[in-house]
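Quick one before lunch.
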Amino acid sequence: MIIVLKSNASESDAQIVRDKITEIGLEPLYLPGEEKIVIGAIGDERKLEKLELKSLSFVERVVPILKPYQLCNREFKKDNTIVKVKDVAIGGKEVIHIAGPCSVESEEQIIKTAIAVKKAGAKILRGGAFKPRTSPYAFQGLEEEGLKFLDQARKETGLPIVTEIVSEYHLDLVGKTTDMFQIGARNAQNFRLLKAVGGTKIPVLLKRGPASSLSEFLMAAEYINSEGNPNVVLCERGIKSFFTDTRNTFDLSIIPLLKKETHLPVIADPSHGTGVRDLVAPMSLAAIAAGADGVIIEVHPEPEKALSDGFQQLTPDNYAQLTGRMALVAESVQRFATNSG
Ligand code: PEP
Ligand code: MN
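Model of the phosphoenolpyruvate complex:
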């Protein structure tokens, strides 16, 4: 619920409203604006209605938040949220490049990739240490050793890292190394895990579930926000559909729709979105044109030897060419993006 006070309302009037909200066990959000004070109240709307805030003389209007996602709703916060991963800001004017291999496979592989993607313009290094695989017989990741190699690559290049957390039991283990958690598509509705990362202040890259509607996707973000972690970046990575000619169906249209519905940054993952190496470049360009705040791309020094997702990974050369093209599209939509040139 949003409570808008009249323009002549004072700070002490605002305090009365805040106290009433606190009395029923909810937490008020104080949002002073240029002209008017706005107070947000998140929680059971029925309890809030009983407060009859409308009857207070200094209250102009009480607006229910009709959407189930409240904290991440654009109605609730008009300005874009900027998520900082170390000193990299996602959600501002710069379109942020995140790149690296699907899986961390060796110290040499991750360091080599990190150096190459940094040179090409990447600002954050990706790499899976814990891999959620469809088959239990497939490579599951180097786990703790993989985290160590990521740390080495960060030391070598200065790039912050994003890596997947697959279980809430790994919160401390992954949390002590990573600069950003990745919640994978398969865990997009693992509510225990969402709550666990929500209890930290570490930024979260939240992938869309393969069958998540816009509302389900935003409710997953709401789980993290409502636990007290505002640092969520949404990532479109393709959904299941009847169209089986690509690995997933990359839903470009959700990017501008999300930008309208939420203040959280939105990035695109055309690697998993298409699963086809040749489609990664056109879909990356399209995602930036559609308003994405960043693009995450899988890059491997020798994709043909990769232990996972080799068929969709770019070589460092392919990637460097692509960042050059992405910079041009970014400019055409009044943004900018770093590249090697
Ligand atoms: C990944 O990023 O390597 C990954 C497994 O992604 P997703 O969860 O989108 O399938
Ligand atoms: Mn992958």
